[in-house]
Amino acid sequence: MKVHRGRCWRRLHHAEEGQALIETILFVFPVCFLLVAGILFFGRAFYCLNALDAASFDGARMGIESLSRRQGTGQGRFAAEQTLVSWHMDPAGAEVLIAPVETWQRGQAVACEVRYPLYVGDIPFVGNFFEGQSLNLHSISYARVERYKSRWAP
């Protein structure tokens, strides 16, 4: 009985096609999936950091622009919360702290710190790396009270 070498070669060739399919399923798809998860994670984190930077800047700026020392913290907190709303973030989850570095006087610095827990539990494989499935982000901005403020009530 004769053995045809062409048939054996075809069988081996078809087996290699199946191997390439298995390698694609086992290696390429998981790597692409991890890349997409990383892009989602870093994109969301950078978006929230930009929003926190804007909120802390606006909070510090409105705190020093108030016409009264007593109203500075309230106006700054309100401005920071409204900035977070404009960035489509929940201000109830944020913590806004506005306080003078030394004393609330002309020429002194005022600090505004905004903290926000970013939920990352819905991104595959990322939520397992953070305690409570949230990443705690914060931003601090400093602004100096104008030295020659003309209408500041003592």
What does this structure look like?
The chain is an alpha+beta fold and 154 residues long. The protein has one domain. The protein contains 2 helices and 3 strands; from the N terminus they run ααβββ. It has helices at 5-64, 69-86; strands spanning 95-100, 109-119, 134-144. Strand 1 (95-100) and strand 2 (109-119) form a beta hairpin. The model has no long low-confidence stretch (mean pLDDT 83).
End-to-end separation in angstroms reads: 112 Å
- C-alpha Rg (nearest Å): 28 Å
Alpha plus pi helix count: 2
How many structural units, i.e. domains? Answer: 1
The main sheet orders its strands as 1-2-3
By DSSP, the count of extended strands is 3
**What form results from the Cα inertia axes?**
rod-shaped
Q: What fraction, in percent, of the residue positions are helical? A: 40-55%
What sequence of helices (H) and strands (E) makes up the elements?
A: HHEEE
The assigned structural class equals alpha+beta
Q: Unreliable segments (pLDDT under 50, ≥5 consecutive)?
A: none
* Largest sheet: number of strands, sense, barrel closure: 3 strands, antiparallel
Binned strand content: 15-25%
Rounded mean pLDDT is 83
List keywords for this structure.
alpha+beta, 18% strand, 3 strands, 154 residues, 2 helices, single chain
Write the layout of secondary structure elements.
Elements: H1 5-64, H2 69-86, E1 95-100, E2 109-119, E3 134-144
Antiparallel strand pairs: 1-2, 2-3
Helix pairs in contact: 1-2
Write a brief caption for the model.
By secondary structure, the chain is α+β, with helices and mostly antiparallel strands. The protein has 2 helices and 3 strands.
